[in-house]
TrEMBL record:
Keywords: Coiled coil. PANTHER family: POLYPHOSPHATE:AMP PHOSPHOTRANSFERASE, POLYPHOSPHATE:AMP PHOSPHOTRANSFERASE-RELATED. It holds the Pfam family PPK2. The lineage of its organism: Bacteria, Pseudomonadati, Pseudomonadota, Gammaproteobacteria, Methylococcales. Residues 272-299 form a coiled coil. This is Polyphosphate:AMP phosphotransferase. It comes from Methylomonas rivi. The gene is pap. Residues 12-234, 270-491 form the Polyphosphate kinase-2-related domain.
Length: 498
């Protein structure tokens, strides 16, 4: 699906001056309205070299309030960026709700260049485009407005534009050897670009193709398009709110299914002497394996979920006791901050993706969307139902980058949880761990159990399964966790050497 602006237009200077003044006023007005809206705007400016991308972006920066917009210019990835999944640097720069992010160089740049220079084939390009579509659909489902503009220039016009820029001492710096090289690849570039635009122009994120031979025309066209898209999106949002207020939220669906948690044998135990022996053995093993993983530049993400007082913190401490503190971080996840609430719920987790060889341990995680947010009504039904596939895609991006992912659910029964609550209340340095909310959550045990079962069933994959840990006995649970991580690292390192 394409939105195509008329081609071949030019705009006189006097007409441009009049229209740009009016457009600037309207953009600032709609931007003021946007500040109070619960969604961000992403503007992608891409296209042919010499097509006037820089001029269009300069005009947007001139017309919009810089307090609520940001231009993100991305070139070759840094070493830090190469050590993370490719979308990491884009997630870090996503605009907050109520603001605009203008991208110069986006997630389209590298796949197009790779294909033009024949570093990837058509099948690999299609894989890249499928991942881009997943990303944009995920953002659009969260109500992000994505505006994509492609500035086109015919080959003869590109030659003429580059000659003009090179001839003028004030602009010749803008014509690089890479631009001249790209000119020789123009036909290949256009062929790839047509495929990319065709595959990624969706109803929720269509491409606008703009003739770039006249900078005044292309600037006005893009500016007007941005204005209209934001207006339409705000209107749809307000209509949705009005309809929801009239009809009320749809009732939450609960999926009845086999209870995976009930199948666990919570009588499994380990005596203290056996625990000490095995803890020493596996901590020593983990120390060695984690150093090998660091040398091999293979990262790990460990996710800990479980009932309140299930022993997540204790299990995490036994892991970290045997690891170099310089190479891991523990991220305790609480209620999102104002900054985090202003972004997609996955944004704060993308920010902590580890560098090569490092380990990130999440004490609670992105699964809060399908657990506490679902049960407590913090997420709408459509949001948490959508989250299962969003989470699987998120984890697949980590796995594709070679990151080890382990997900632990620490399970205890209702009686054991109450007993632990009471013991914590009697210990001065543990009393802070118990709140009224912990007791309140016990009243919703059945609802949480249904949510946990559905989470496990829908987000366990062959490469990223859930490990269910029988945790009524803390010694048994801790050894099961550390042993499983050692086995996972061994398997990964063996595969590297074979």
């Amino acid at each position: 699906m394409f939105e195509v602006a008329e081609l071949g237009h030019t705009v006189e200077k006097s007409v441009y001056k009049e229209k740009s003044a009016q457009l600037r006023t309207e953009l600032l007005t709609i931007q003021h309205h946007l500040k109070s809206c619960p969604f961000p705007v992403i503007v992608i400016i891409s296209g042919v070299d010499g097509g006037g991308k820089g001029e269009v972006i300069n005009r947007l920066n001139e017309w919009l309030d810089p307090h609520y917009m940001r231009t993100i210019a991305l070139g070759e990835p840094s070493d830090e960026e190469r050590e993370r999944p490719k979308f990491w640097r884009y997630w870090r720069t996503l605009p907050a709700k109520g603001t605009i992010g203008v991208y110069v160089g986006s997630w389209y740049s590298d796949p197009i260049a790779q294909r033009v220079y024949q570093k990837i084939d058509d099948a690999a390009l299609q894989t890249e485009l499928n991942q881009i579509n997943q990303l944009e659909e995920l953002l659009a489902d969260d109500n992000t407005l994505i505006i994509k503009c492609w500035l086109h220039l015919k080959k003869d016009m590109q030659v003429k534009r580059l000659k003009q820029l090179a001839k003028n001492p004030a602009t010749n710096w803008r014509v690089t050897d890479k631009d001249r090289q790209h000119l020789g690849l123009y036909d290949d570039f256009i062929g790839v670009a047509e495929n990319v635009l065709s595959e990624t122009s969706k109803a929720y994120a269509p491409w606008l193709i703009v003739e770039g031979s006249d900078n005044r025309y292309s600037s006005l066209t893009v500016g007007q398009h941005v204005l209209e898209r934001i207006r339409q999106h705000i209107q749809r949002h307000e209509n949705t709110l009005a309809a929801a207020a009239e009809q009320g939220e749809a009732p939450k669906s609960q999926v009845e299914q086999y209870n995976l948690l009930d199948a666990l044998d919570l009588k499994l135990k380990l005596n203290k002497s056996g625990y000490k022996t095995q803890l020493e053995k596996y901590q020593g093993k983990l120390n060695e394996l984690s150093r090998h993983a660091l040398a091999a530049k293979r990262s790990s993400i460990l996710v800990f979920e479980g009932w309140d007082a299930a022993g997540k913190g204790g299990a995490i401490r036994r892991l970290t006791e045997s690891m170099d503190a310089r190479h891991y971080q523990v991220i305790p996840i609480a209620a999102p901050t104002d900054e985090e609430r202003a972004h997609h719920y996955l944004w704060r987790f993308w920010r902590h993706i580890p560098r090569a060889g490092q380990v990130t341990i999440y004490d609670r995680s992105w699964y809060g969307r399908v657990l506490v947010e679902r049960v407590e009504g913090m997420a709408k039904t459509g949001q948490w139902q959508r989250a299962y596939s969003e989470i699987v895609n998120f984890e697949e991006a980590m796995l594709a980058h070679g990151i080890v992912i382990m997900k632990f659910w620490l399970h205890i029964d209702h009686d054991e949880q109450l007993a632990r609550f009471k013991r914590r209340e009697e210990i001065s340095y543990k009393q802070f761990k118990i709140t009224e909310e912990d007791y309140r959550n016990r009243d919703k045990w059945d609802d949480y159990q249904k949510a946990v079962n559905e989470m496990i069933a829908r987000t366990s994959t062959s490469k990223s399964p859930w490990l269910l840990v029988e945790a009524n006995d803390k010694y048994y649970a801790r050894i099961k966790v550390i042993k499983a991580y050692c086995e996972c690292l061994e398997k990964m390192l063996d595969a590297l050497h074979n």
